[in-house]
Amino acid sequence: MNTLTLHSGAFIETIKILHIIITLPISTASNERFFSSLKRLKSYIRTIMSNDRLSDLMVIALEKEDAGKVNLNAAVDEFAQLKYSIGDTTELKCTVLYASDFNILWIKVDKERSTDPVTFSSGSTLIIKDSRLSLRYDMDSNSYSLQISNIQETDAGFYRCDVNLGTNNKLSAETELIVRRRPFISDNSTRSLVVNEGQSVTLECYAGGYPSPKVSWRRANNAILSKNISIFRGNILKIPSITKEDRGTYFCVAENGVGRGARRHIAIEVEFAPVITIPKRHLGQALQYDMDLECHVEAYPPPAIIWLNNGIQLSNNQHYKISHFATTDEITDTTIRIISIENRQYGDYVCKASNVLGTTEVTVTLYETIIPVCPPACGQLPSSSHLKNSTINFTSSSFLIVLYLFFVYFNF
To answer: Do the domain assignments include residue 173?
Structure first.
């Protein structure tokens, strides 16, 4: 070996083969979690070696300089795990040389909850009465096979095969049964929030399932998140200073490739002071015709809205008609109709909205025009008082002209 090492450049493949032969461990276990120590490995091989010893084989060949880079425990754990989905069927096989001379037990161990082990079988007798469980002893292979059909989430855990050699003397091998589970959103995740504009907001979403789900965040209608992206990946989404534009529905989505994944809707309400917009700040209308002044209000909580003229709050009467239409919890459109405008009604009108976070007001100016404005005066006749005055004027000033035209018409 030393000679080969000195001339390693010429005998590369020969040296690799010798390393593999020297470091070759052989296991006859079917899905058994072993190799915890050299002593247990020695006892295990001596006990179960048979013609089927190559049914499952894991070979680890390590160069000396790479040995420290390998996590052997992780490699053995991955080898020993059984991964199934709900509804599948699995068979756990324990092969023991001279099995008929010893009592063989199949036991389930719950290491997370530290509860007492549950013995499923003793020898060829099934102790747990469950239609999904069956036990089969094969004399030719000296094996006891525990079959679990229609696997459920509760079947996950460590299953151990114990060989009782005598008082306080036994051999054990175990494997972990992992049940793939579709994602679910944990209860400690964020639900709905009501916050003030400008606050820092943290949304948290945690999910369970196997494999471990990946969590992402989206908004309804693929709206842009506060980070100017449409999808954010991670459990925690932070909004440093929330605005009213950030309000709405957020989706926490957990996916792991099993099933359709899980989704939670998180509604964020942002409380903010009223914001008022108006179509036009100056509107004109002829005397004795109606006119509508409009005001668009955004606020949450919903605000109280009033109209004022010369500092006096207006209400519904023969001169004014006020209406409010709420399209959402945050948006209200309000209109005041000035009926049969009189001279004294021209001037400034104030739309004022208030909630717990503040007060906002906007002024709309109404001025007089000669020609009626449509809408809202489309097809509208002047008020009756205006028509009366026009009739009086017609009778007194135009009668002689009409009479003169009548006389001229009949003489020609």
So the answer is: yes
